[in-house]
Design brief:
By secondary structure, the chain is α/β, with parallel strands linked by helices. It has two domains: 131 residues, Response regulator (Rossmann fold, 3-Layer(aba) Sandwich), CATH 3.40.50; 143 residues, Rossmann fold (3-Layer(aba) Sandwich), CATH 3.40.50.2300. The protein has twelve helices and ten strands. A seven-stranded mixed β-sheet has the order 5-4-6-7-8-9-10, sandwiched between helices. Strands 1-2-3 form a three-stranded parallel β-sheet, with helices on both faces. Helix 5 links the parallel strand 4 and strand 5. Helix 1 packs across helix 10. The longest helix has 16 residues. The model has no long low-confidence stretch (mean pLDDT 93).
Length: 280
Amino acid sequence: MHARRLLMLALGWIEGQNMVYDRVYADDQQRDLPRLAAELVARKPELIYAPPQSAAVAARQATRTIAIVFATGFNPVGAGLVESLARPGGNATGVLSVIESLAPKRIELLREILPGTKRIGLLGDPNDPRLAGERSALAPVATALGMTLIVGEASNPVEFDPAVARLIGQGVDVIYGTGTLVTNLRGRLIEQANRRRLPVIGSNLSWVEAGALFSYGRSQDEQIRCSARIVDKILKGARPADIAVEQPTKFEFIINLKAAKALGITVPQALLVRADEVIQ
């Protein structure tokens, strides 16, 4: 969020002068989103910036008039946020993280680094549609490669550590995290997994910076820039209905060589050459 505020500053929006932020957080409690969204709408903001798609859905359920901008969309049409990507048609628009699941690509990269992987732990929030989406995408890939997919579920921070412990207890070779809750608690996941010398893979730079073995996904910088530009357009008079949902154009493969060495993993030189960034 700090990076987005800096971008807004660069676009001429200065907090305390021509911009006021009213910040609301669910603290990883998805069930609180509808209530928080309704309370926020009652305060009549000019625009609601709701990066996670689940937050944007809650905001849209609370208002059909206040502009909503999401920053990590994955199926905004199916979620009822927009009528189409080209012409949203309502009061919401934003940025896609992915057009389709990147799970198969991540598993392909994993196999190149750890060809002996047999058991994949998929960790997510059952209330977050991304868990079901990633599970559906991963299952056929895992079967084709002779792997077993084991799903761990946590719907709040209290359930999180036990869910990680169960995956570890089931003998997984790697943990693949997905969704808002797991992303927010990625540090806790990686700390627990690495104590057992288990690698974790994620979706973007923030995962690698927290200690994940590697990530593959949309460029975080691009995502933040795109969402900030959309917010800027709307505040200057554009209608969300007319602003096409921005689709990803740049994907990043980032390797954490420091984590690999700590885990006793040798990353093939061919992969290091292909990586967009290597953290030493």
